[in-house]
Design goal:
The structure holds two protein chains of two kinds.
Chain A: E1 25-27, E2 34-37, E3 47-48, E4 55-56, E5 61-64, E6 73-74, E7 79-89, E8 94-103, H1 125-134, H2 147-151, E9 161-166, H3 175-182, H4 184-198, E10 202-208, H5 212-222, E11 228-233, H6 242-250, E12 266-270, H7 271-283, E13 289-295, E14 303-308, H8 313-319, E15 327-332, E16 339-340, E17 354-359, H9 376-380, H10 387-395, H11 399-404, H12 415-419, H13 426-447
Parallel strand pairs in A: 1-14, 9-10, 9-12, 10-11, 13-17
Antiparallel strand pairs in A: 2-8, 3-5, 4-7, 5-6, 7-8, 13-14, 15-16, 15-17
Helix pairs in contact in A: 1-4, 3-5, 4-5, 4-7, 10-13
Chain B: H1 19-41, H2 43-66, H3 77-87, H4 96-110, H5 123-134, H6 136-139, H7 157-162, H8 171-176, H9 188-200, H10 207-223, H11 234-239, H12 243-250, H13 261-281, H14 288-305, H15 313-326
Classes of the chains: A alpha/beta, B mainly alpha.
């Protein structure tokens, strides 16, 4: 067991995991339509290789990665391409190009899929990196950063530790919890494959102490492997944030932006990512499905689904028994950092770890009051910032001051806004400052 | 699925704590000491409390109405101001003193600067400072004997101490409030009960009262006895006068104290130091009011310079150091 270091800030939030934490993962099956966005990862959108009328098979490459930071997209099942057209992107909040696929119900596998190895020892480091790139693997914790990029750090940045993130600190979500409980050996296998591909010798599986079943399952699964350790982290939001996790497990702090975990010798991946990697090595299956928790007081039977990427939100909610009453919000992701949807025809993307449905009665429309400078946001901030002043500077247009108060360091975890007794939209104010500072920097760079 | 969905930015869940809840918590925490004041000093105390609160609330409502703003007296902040001002007054003071003091506190110290959240000094203490200057004889002299409620011409124990006297009440009398003094400052046990409530409900930070009272205790112990070090009566310094009332309920006012934990500790220590200076070497027997008001004025400076160490600070510090080394 790894000895933990001191983390700073963060908050205790109602966990609400019990709604879905004992629901076994079930297959969500085939919806009538799948929508595959070309941009469902951090970086450049993929480029479509198919057109309307084409037939595709499960696992077939339908859009190729463009440039260094990008990810390929594959067909999750066999069927016909209905259209390549603009659809509303639930996370980006605007129209984005997507491949619309009509499943034929046969679920035929693409001939090109082939198992690569049955043991991590039987496949080379180079082949593993190539595989991660080929299958369009991205971080499944939410940010959807292309994994292959993480696995190839620059040579002047030696990596000594790989953290497997099974923290899942967002309330309600249980996708990571269930995958560790049900598939601990595949998770460990995938983790070892990721470690080998990055050339890292020390791996730590990190789990919050509110998941005892997952802790036991993973403890058993990693036993045969001397290079793997377990870190049980006390539950506190947002410990699952990459920077917070590195701080609490290793006592290291990632340098301020544009600093990255690799600057302190660390790579962090989500347990779902490791599981997907295991599927790729053992079966050759690209990233075409993931675990999605559909939960919240607003659905009748909270579930954990193995769902094809591109499955409509409405389909999954119906599958979870539908709404339990008047619906308030449908959140893609967790309630702290997720996006509230305006259209339930939107599909899930690679980074969708859950759908949280809140009842209308749970949404209070609270008046925004003046800041009373209680300082709760300051104590809550896991980045050691002063949200009160950043937001005040942003609201009154003092961009330079917002920047001096380190607005760009904000990870938008929502702790400050959660704690604010005046119900001020602090994250929104800070995001606005960040966007405007970025725009200003771009304009300056363009001038030069 | 044609449901109308609510769309807002994250986070989608919020803590149940509200401004009104916090303010109500402070009101509740003050009630034991207010009841104690009425028991000790009788109807006079009750009338002063009522006058002060009503005057504060009415002044806020009228001002907001006259300036065509939304009326926000329902947030209980004016109630707190009224209660606190009354608690700092002697029980024999004429009723126009709390009435005028509350109007000053609300209109001049709070509303003119923008209302809730925008004032830079504690309204109740500003009101007290005003009435102390306007009616020095009644605000610093209208003492009543607890329980008998007779007017007393003798000075408060704090003034006795200041004059070099040693004839002060015993420890138990000081704890239950059986002494002359302002109506809400004497019953230490009831004040601590309220303070404990604020600490347990995490409405206030322990650093402010601990910094304040600790400084006062240690400072008085070291310098309290003229001509001799380390022989002062630190405990009496805390129990006599308004230190406990000020430390738990006034120095902790969010709006006029720093936003960082470290800043609040500095604020507490600073307020304790100024109180000590006034008590030991100044002209007044009591210095809590000015100690806190002084630190209210220092708060923007504290907030300017006391900033938490941000995540990744060590990295930047190392980078700076190595850059200097190269130079």
């Amino acid at each position: 067991m790894v000895n933990l270091k001191r983390g700073s800030g963060g908050i205790a939030v109602p966990e609400k995991k019990e709604l879905s934490s004992s629901a076994k993962i079930v297959d969500a099956g085939l919806p009538n339509e799948l929508v595959l966005f070309l941009s469902q990862h951090t970086g450049a959108p993929a480029s479509a290789l198919v057109k309307a009328g084409d037939s595709v098979k499960r696992g077939q490459l339908v859009a190729s990665a463009q440039g260094a930071v990008s990810a390929a997209v594959h067909a999750p099942t066999s069927g016909k391409v209905k259209a390549v057209e603009d659809r509303y992107h639930p996370v980006q909040g605007r129209l984005c190009q997507a491949i619309v696929l009509e499943p034929d119900g046969l679920n035929e596998l693409d001939e090109s899929l082939r198992p690569r190895a049955s043991a991590v020892e039987d496949i080379t480091k180079e082949d593993l990196v190539a595989l991660a790139r080929e299958i369009g693997l991205v971080g499944l914790g939410g940010a959807a950063f292309p994994t292959a990029v993480k696995l190839t750090p620059p040579p002047n940045r030696p990596i000594d530790t790989y953290l497997l993130n099974g923290i899942e600190c967002e309330p309600y979500l249980t996708a990571d919890d269930r995958i560790m409980v049900e598939e601990p050996h595949d998770v460990a296998f995938g983790f070892r494959a990721l470690m080998k591909s990055a050339g890292v010798k020390r791996g730590i599986v990190c789990i919050e102490d509110n998941k005892p079943e997952a802790i036991e399952a993973m403890r058993e699964a990693i036993k045969p492997f001397g290079e793997l350790e377990l870190a049980v982290v006390p539950t506190r939001y947002p410990r699952g944030g990459e920077k917070q996790l590195i701080q609490v497990v290793l006592g290291r702090e990632v340098p301020p932006p544009p600093g990255l975990p690799l600057d302190v010798g660390v790579i962090v991946s989500n347990v779902g990512t490791a599981y997907a990697m295991a599927q790729a090595v053992r079966k050759g299956l690209p990233l075409v499905e993931r675990i999605v928790t559909v939960t919240g007081e607003g659905v009748k039977t909270p579930c954990n689904f193995r769902s094809l990427i591109g499955t409509p939100v409405s389909y999954l909610i119906e599958l979870a028994g539908g709404f339990s009453g008047p619906v308030g919000k449908v959140i893609m992701g967790g309630p702290m950092m997720g996006v509230s949807l305006k259209d339930l025809n939107a599909p899930i993307v690679k980074g969708t770890s859950g759908l949280v449905v809140l009842q209308r009665g749970q949404i209070k429309r609270e008046k925004v009051l003046p800041c009373i400078k209680c300082g709760r946001c300051v104590e809550a901030c896991p980045m050691g910032l002063l949200p009160v002043w950043i937001a005040a500077c942003s609201d009154s247009g003092y961009l330079e001051d917002a920047e001096k108060y380190r607005a760009m360091d904000c990870i938008e975890c929502g702790c400050c806004a959660y704690e604010c007794p005046s119900k001020r939209p602090l994250v929104q104010s800070i995001k606005l400052a960040k966007n405007r500072i970025t725009a200003k920097r771009r304009a300056l760079a363009a001038k030069k | 699925m044609g449901e109308k969905l609510i769309v807002t930015p994250s986070p989608h869940i919020k803590s149940p704590r509200t401004v009104k809840g916090v303010m109500l918590g402070v009101v509740i925490s003050l009630l034991p000491a207010c009841v104690g004041a009425v028991v000790l000093f009788g109807m006079n105390a009750l009338l002063i409390l009522i006058t002060s609160v009503v005057s504060a609330v009415v002044a806020e409502a009228l001002w907001q109405r006259a300036t065509k703003q939304e009326i926000t007296v329902g947030d209980f902040s004016a109630v707190i101001t009224g209660l606190l001002l009354a608690m700092t007054l002697p029980p024999g003071v004429p009723l126009y003193v709390p009435a005028v003091g509350s109007v000053f506190a609300i209109v001049i110290a709070k509303q003119i600067f923008g209302g809730l959240g925008s004032n830079f000094v504690n309204p109740a203490l500003a009101g007290r400072a005003f009435v102390l200057a306007a009616w020095p004889m009644s605000v610093a002299g209208a003492w009543l004997n607890p329980l008998t409620h007779d007017a007393v011409s003798s000075p408060t124990p704090l003034a006795v101490l200041k004059g070099g006297g040693t004839n002060i009440p015993g420890l138990w009398d000081l704890l239950i409030g059986n002494r002359t003094g302002s109506l809400g400052e004497t019953s230490i046990i009831l004040l601590l009960l309220g303070g404990l409530f604020l600490l347990v409900t995490k409405i206030i930070d322990w650093r402010t009262p601990v910094g304040f009272l600790g400084t006062l205790f240690v400072g008085t112990w070291v310098f309290g006895k003229p001509g001799a070090l380390f022989q002062g009566d630190g405990l009496s310094a805390i129990l006599l006068g308004g230190a406990v009332l000020g430390a738990f309920f006034m120095a902790t006012d969010y709006v006029t104290s720093p936003v960082t934990p470290k800043g609040r500790l500095i604020f507490g220590i600073g307020a304790g130091l100024v109180t000590l200076l006034i008590r030991l070497w100044g002209g007044y027997p009591e210095g809590v009011t000015y100690g806190i008001l002084f630190m209210n004025l220092m708060t923007p400076i504290i907030d300017r310079f006391v900033v938490p160490k941000y995540y990744g600070y060590e990295h930047d510090a190392r980078a700076r150091k190595s850059a200097e080394g190269k130079r």
